[in-house]
Amino acid sequence: MSNGDLWVFGYGSLMWNPGFDHDEALVATLPDYHRSFCMRSIHHRGTEDHPGLVLALDELTGAHCQGLAFRARPGTYDQTMADLRERELVSSAYLEKRLMIDLRDGRQVEAVTYVIDPDHVQYCQIELDEQAQIISTAVGGRGPNTEYLYNTASHLTELGIEDDDLSWLSRQVRTLTGA
Questions:
Q1: pTM of the shown model
Q2: Average pLDDT over the chain, rounded to an integer
Q3: Nearest-angstrom CA–CA distance, 112 and 169
Q4: Which CATH number is 135's domain given?
């Protein structure tokens, strides 16, 4: 960790529901990964019988993902990591990595980051139209898949982060659901 700090990179629900105490939250960029609905959700936003989709970081040379970096409050590191692992590693579809990110203020720090395991059974690559169909009907232990999409898209907008795919999906799912 940079200067002994624990940084965590959020690109989906961690942005609007980090679930841990933090002293700093800054827009940050992770190189060589992109955010996409490439993980079937069988726990939080879907079920085994009706999987939903959640965002994951898919490795792609030359890509980048903007999200929110959180600096955990000192003294909470062990609990923060335990809570993150319980939340993010529920099905082993994510890999926990420590990757360098660029903070908007110019600093570069190492951050705990959860990326998709492309060899995991929950990994998928689905066209946007089909993603919209799945997201519009799936519900899991943490609620409707639509809520996850809408919260993430709105928080990206609030942060001034453009994600054309999420904006399109949000509009399309609202059309499909009549919202």
A1: 0.91
A2: 95
A3: 27
A4: 3.10.490.10
